[in-house]
Amino acid sequence: MDNPRIGETALARLLDGWCTDARESLHRQLAAALTALISSGELPPGTLLPSERALASTLAVSRGTLVTAYTTLRSLGLLDSRQGSGTRVRGNSQPRLPGSAARLNPLSDTADSAVADLSSAALPGQDWVAEVVGAVSPQDLRHWVRGHGYYPAGLPALRAAIANHCTDDGLLSDPDQVLVTSGSQQALQLIATAMLAPGDEVLVEDPTNWGALDAFRERGARLRTIPLRDDGPDADVLVRLLRSRRPRLLYLVPTVHNPVGVTMRPAVAKVIASAVAETGTTLIEDLSSVDTLFKGPPPPSMAALAPDAPVLSIGSLSKLFWGGIRVGWIRSTVDFVRQLATYRSSADMGSSVPSQLAALRLLGYVPRARRARARELRASYEWTAELLVTHLPDWTWVEPDGGASLWVRLPEPNGLTVVESARRAGVLLTPGSVFSAADGQMDRIRLSYAAGPDTVLEGVQRLVSVWRGGRRLR
């Protein structure tokens, strides 16, 4: 079998975040990042690497930086270069880590005052959340402490409250149709583990949530993409693929799309719901961003539009209240929830009981929290949009319906280059390519407008310098 080959775009995506220390030389940081990918197995032995010139252009560094980094790895016995054959990974004996486990964590646990972080769409908790969570008393816990503390499907009272929450949003639900998870990402991983085998086909939008891509890739799924338009996924392409390919799963983010921010229009949703019901393909509708909607009321869920179809609805409290609560859920049929609870039992035996009790209290504040989120996010978007229109008028985007970030289109397909140049100027952005299952979206970047006005202003000022200067840092 031929040795694998990795292109400069794919390798740059794996290297995202490699340059983090302004005191350390670029070639040393790059060599360290490549070493980590080789050690983890992300770059297996025999992999043909991009040329120095091609990768240097993509990473926005000089060719000399790449030459020096490659030379360092050759001296360590990790790379082998031959005239006319390119540079290949020699590898080592370290065990391989699966998929995203070997990649750099996009959420840092340290703060650097010299960096304007516009890369994360994670939202801070609302101030009053601390009071509600703090109201969970020893008396509330005492009943549960007397038991074993393991509830793979979730505390019965919380499952009932989530079912009522879904019903209030237009999706009639029973407590036995709800499984509590430790956030929406665990929900995705649990579904992928339960439903996917290597080689199974999954339809995803392009772009889409990178957490979902990681969950599916870790199971060895084959990803097939559907173009995303301003009103949602291309329904004609999606329906044709459902009928012709009969994929194992279809994954959609219908309300406040991650990362674009648009909401699927009702006419498109009805067409897709009908096709899902017709073909019997299991649909995952990720509703974890619905609480960031600031334009109009939430539309009906896909599960409500196709009540007899196999639809798994994912929800979360992270964006509405606080990510530290770590409570999400899957809403499905009673039988499938039982199956998922069995899979869950082999992993972590259930979510934290104190967190679930806090979530139970917080669900009583959903209307208040949604109003507050909508006000703050709309104001942040409008202020940031005005700033960008004034100072970076050739950057464009589709006006979002909600969310915490802008999906920016650049005049040229050089998103990775802009991200790397911005990083070394003290601004963190996310390249569009990490949201693509097909190495696309090269002309896009994601820019958070929820980082606070001071951070956004500082970030945009630095971006103006990088963009107008067109500089490539050595």
TrEMBL record:
<dbReference type="InterPro" id="IPR036390">
    <property type="entry name" value="WH_DNA-bd_sf"/>
</dbReference>
<dbReference type="Pfam" id="PF00155">
    <property type="entry name" value="Aminotran_1_2"/>
</dbReference>
<keyword id="KW-0804">Transcription</keyword>
<dbReference type="GO" id="GO:0003700">
    <property type="term" value="F:DNA-binding transcription factor activity"/>
</dbReference>
<feature type="domain" description="HTH gntR-type">
    <location>
        <begin position="24"/>
        <end position="92"/>
    </location>
</feature>
<dbReference type="GO" id="GO:0030170">
    <property type="term" value="F:pyridoxal phosphate binding"/>
</dbReference>
<dbReference type="GO" id="GO:0003677">
    <property type="term" value="F:DNA binding"/>
</dbReference>
<keyword id="KW-0663">Pyridoxal phosphate</keyword>
<feature type="compositionally biased region" description="Polar residues">
    <location>
        <begin position="83"/>
        <end position="95"/>
    </location>
</feature>
<comment type="similarity">
    <text>In the C-terminal section; belongs to the class-I pyridoxal-phosphate-dependent aminotransferase family.</text>
</comment>
<dbReference type="InterPro" id="IPR015424">
    <property type="entry name" value="PyrdxlP-dep_Trfase"/>
</dbReference>
<dbReference type="InterPro" id="IPR015422">
    <property type="entry name" value="PyrdxlP-dep_Trfase_small"/>
</dbReference>
<dbReference type="Pfam" id="PF00392">
    <property type="entry name" value="GntR"/>
</dbReference>
<dbReference type="InterPro" id="IPR000524">
    <property type="entry name" value="Tscrpt_reg_HTH_GntR"/>
</dbReference>
<keyword id="KW-0238">DNA-binding</keyword>
<protein>
    <submittedName>
        <fullName>DNA-binding transcriptional MocR family regulator</fullName>
    </submittedName>
</protein>
<feature type="region of interest" description="Disordered">
    <location>
        <begin position="83"/>
        <end position="105"/>
    </location>
</feature>
<dbReference type="InterPro" id="IPR004839">
    <property type="entry name" value="Aminotransferase_I/II_large"/>
</dbReference>
<keyword id="KW-0805">Transcription regulation</keyword>
<dbReference type="InterPro" id="IPR036388">
    <property type="entry name" value="WH-like_DNA-bd_sf"/>
</dbReference>
<dbReference type="InterPro" id="IPR015421">
    <property type="entry name" value="PyrdxlP-dep_Trfase_major"/>
</dbReference>
<dbReference type="InterPro" id="IPR051446">
    <property type="entry name" value="HTH_trans_reg/aminotransferase"/>
</dbReference>
